[in-house]
From TrEMBL:
Domain of life according to the entry: Bacteria
Name of the protein this chain belongs to: ER-bound oxygenase mpaB/mpaB'/Rubber oxygenase catalytic domain-containing protein
Lineage, top ranks: Bacteria, Pseudomonadati, Bacteroidota, Flavobacteriia, Flavobacteriales
InterPro entries recorded: Lcp-like (IPR037473), MPAB/Lcp_cat_dom (IPR018713)
GO molecular function, one term: oxidoreductase activity
Domain (ER-bound oxygenase mpaB/mpaB'/Rubber oxygenase catalytic): residue spans on this chain: 147-350
Length: 400
């Protein structure tokens, strides 16, 4: 937004200071070896008011001029078959695909493969990390959640949100998924357009959107933080759960999400190459985010209670047990302060399951070959995704 100057307004706040001196922020600093400061804050802060204008224009030119189903079918054709300068399509569509079809000079498919293999071999620990650390931890950042509230994520329910997040994550982290016109590439470009559609809808319908404080809806800086969640924060969670990550896998993970971010229209220089950069970038971003508010608590509890309404498990006692295990993992992976702000229930023996899980992971890594772990992890993750697909396709199931 022209003329707005953002300051690191929460850098002296208790929640920011505690996170970076005693909580997971301190742990991230130890994990990454990063040195953090505010020297380059002004290089990043303008992106709080920056959006993907190309994606927005495509939505205006295609989605807002047809019914949603027809527009989606048309874009699907372009994504799967490509677009050339000669095609009779709107200029915005040509611009979108001239970027996404251009392979960046820095792209290394070998590194992307290493990142994908880490995602697969981490098996169900990956899904625990995504749910109980990345997603739940994100709810502690009050302004980051405002677009979710504006698009009525609570009414749609946590089952739907988890299903969509899992669908995206699994499909961009398989072998060769990000090659042009493949499934991961398709998911990335479609997600980019969904973000633009949501942003334009918020700007049209939400009259009290507080741009100065909240930034533009789904702005580039918030997008950067989200994708640091999929790389740095995700690996930090795996580390807590006992996974040993090689240097090459670590490079591969950042490379994979850098390319996904590139396809999503996040400015390249906001996408970190390693854990030192990611920690520094994340540090700056957290200084403009207040702690959890009442909306955060509602989102957190919707996620917690997802296990109780998800029909993947037949019996209520199974669902209650699964909810208990997720609560244990949330307390183990997140700061106590964050859990208290999100009003995560206190439960007995909350460290037992995560500590046993960590021990099992360490033994599994030593006794099972890497190739077998990749294959087994892929199968386990695909089974969970297919379970969610079945649930969402069941017309009798309502997630709200």
């Amino acid at each position: 937004m022209e003329g707005m100057i953002l300051q690191p307004r929460f850098k002296d706040s208790e929640h920011f200071r505690n996170f970076w001196t005693m909580g997971n922020g301190k742990s991230l600093l130890d994990f990454s070896g990063a040195e953090v400061n505010f020297d380059h804050f002004e290089q990043f802060s303008p992106y709080f008011y920056h959006v993907d204008e190309v994606g927005d224009q495509v939505v205006k030119d295609i989605y807002f001029k047809k019914n949603f189903h027809d527009a989606s079918k048309e874009m699907e054709g372009y994504i799967r078959n490509g677009v050339s300068e000669q095609d009779g399509v709107p200029e915005s569509v040509k611009q979108l695909f001239s970027q996404t079809q251009a392979i960046p000079a820095w792209l290394d498919y070998r590194l992307i493969k290493k990142g994908a293999e880490l995602c697969m071999r981490s098996n169900l620990d990956a899904l625990i990390s995504l749910r109980d650390y990345c997603l739940m931890g994100g709810y502690d950042y009050a302004y980051l959640n405002k677009p979710l509230i504006a698009t009525e994520a609570l009414k749609k329910g946590a089952v739907k949100r988890l299903s969509e997040t899992l669908d995206f994550w699994v499909n961009v982290t398989r072998y060769d998924a990000l090659k042009l016109h493949q499934k991961g590439y398709e998911f990335a470009v479609k997600t980019r357009l969904i973000h633009s559609y949501a942003r334009l809808s918020i700007k049209k319908h939400v009259k009290n959107w507080d741009t100065e404080n909240w930034g533009e809806p789904i702005n580039s800086w918030d997008m950067m933080a989200t994708y640091i969640g999929f790389s740095l924060v995700f690996m930090h969670s795996l580390h807590k759960l006992g996974t040993i990550i090689s240097e090459e896998e670590e490079k591969g993970m950042f490379h994979l999400w850098k390319y996904v971010g590139y396809l999503l229209g996040i400015p390249e220089h906001l996408l970190p190459n390693n854990k030192q950069e990611a920690t520094q970038y994340f540090y700056l971003w957290t200084s403009v985010q207040p702690p959890a508010d009442k909306d955060s608590v509602l989102l957190a509890h919707s996620l917690l209670n997802e296990s109780l309404i998800n029909p993947a498990l037949r019996y209520q006692f199974q669902r209650k047990n699964l909810r208990y295990l997720h609560i244990c993992c949330t307390w183990f992976l997140l700061d106590d302060d964050v859990c208290k702000r999100l009003q995560i229930p206190e439960v007995a023996y909350r460290k037992a399951f995560p500590l046993v899980k960590r021990t099992i992971t360490k033994i599994y890594e030593k006794t099972v070959s890497r190739e077998a772990r990749i294959s087994k992890g892929n199968q386990a993750q695909m089974k969970v995704l297919n379970d969610y697909h079945s649930i969402m396709e069941n017309s009798n199931f309502h997630s709200s």
